[in-house]
């Protein structure tokens, strides 16, 4: 058996959905001789038989695109494939947090001054008429750091896992290829992320691709390579 690729997929495309995953795959040197395949149930998939059928349909599409064909008409396939998928919810409490942001504060001050007294000024002639108080308005601006508190809350994330086992149909059922892919995120529906997870997982079949351990790919339902 050749040591599998351990792939950490970190997706960070601007403006599109992405998924983080880890891919592990282990292949026998004879995996490249596989031409036909068939499926056997695992009965271990979250969502039951219908969800498992959907996973098998996705695997079928990807393998056919690689030049393989599903055995039919009573033909014994080169390998039997078992596919399973699980989803588990995980809750984490996020404590309250406070950060500060700048805020511009405007202050307006109005000052009223009494009119001058003509007698004190030695100019009684200025006392003629009706002198009025003087009003002065001053506006100033300054910046204050205002606290913003985010209350504590619980976040729910989902652990998604898909495993594929391939083994010879002949007596002995020798393993030919196995792999699994896991990811965590806020999407609870495995079928939404399964096409992307399976694309990355089966890119390592029948042998290692030589791709970098860290890869990028956008979340997509498209199964065509």
Q: How much is the radius of gyration in Å?
A: 36 Å
Distance between the termini: 26 Å
Structural class: alpha/beta
Helix fraction?
Answer: 10-25%
Extended strand count: 10
Numbering strands along the chain, what is their spatial order in the largest sheet? Answer: 4-3-5-8-9-2-1-10
The assigned CATH architecture of the domain at 6-94 and 155-215 is 2-Layer Sandwich
* Elements, N to C (H/E): EEEHEEEHEEEHE
CATH class of the domain at 6-94 and 155-215: Alpha Beta
Average pLDDT, rounded to a whole number, is 83
Regarding quaternary structure, what we see is single chain
Would you tell me which CATH topology of the domain at 6-94 and 155-215 applies?
Double Stranded RNA Binding Domain
Portion in strands? 35-45%
Please, how many helices? 3
User: What is the 3D form?
Assistant: rod-shaped
Low-confidence stretches: 1-16
Largest sheet: 8 strands, mixed
Q: Care to give the gist of this entry?
A:
This protein is of the alpha/beta class.
Overview of the molecule:
The protein is α/β, with parallel strands linked by helices and 225 residues long. It has three helices and ten strands. The protein has helices at 48-65, 118-121, 190-202; strands spanning 6-9, 21-27, 36-40, 69-70, 79-94, 97-113, 134-150, 153-168, 175-185, 214-215. The longest helix is centred in the first third of the chain and has 18 residues, at 48-65. It is rod-shaped and about 125 Å long. The model is unreliable at 1-16 (pLDDT under 50).
């Amino acid at each position: 058996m050749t040591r599998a690729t351990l792939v950490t997929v970190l997706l960070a495309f601007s403006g599109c959905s992405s998924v983080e995953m880890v891919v592990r795959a282990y292949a026998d040197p004879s995996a490249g001789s596989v031409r036909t395949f068939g499926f056997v149930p695992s009965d271990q998939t979250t969502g039951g038989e219908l969800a498992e059928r959907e996973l098998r349909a996705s695997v079928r599409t990807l393998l056919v695109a690689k030049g393989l064909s599903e055995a039919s008409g009573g033909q014994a396939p080169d390998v039997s494939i078992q596919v399973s998928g699980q989803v588990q919810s995980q809750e984490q409490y996020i404590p309250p947090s406070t950060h500060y942001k700048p805020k511009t504060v405007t202050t307006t001050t109005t000052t009223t001054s009494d009119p001058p007294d003509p007698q004190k000024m030695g100019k009684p002639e200025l006392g003629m008429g009706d002198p009025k108080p003087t009003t002065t308005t001053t506006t100033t601006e300054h910046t204050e750091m205002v606290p913003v508190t985010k209350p504590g809350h619980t976040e729910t994330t989902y652990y998604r896992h898909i495993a594929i086992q391939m083994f010879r149909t002949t007596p002995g059922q020798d393993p030919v290829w196995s792999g699994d892919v896991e990811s965590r995120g806020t999407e609870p529906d495995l079928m939404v992320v399964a096409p992307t997870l399976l694309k990355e997982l089966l890119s390592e079949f029948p042998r290692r691709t030589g791709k970098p351990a860290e890869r990028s790919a956008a979340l997509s339902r498209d199964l065509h390579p």
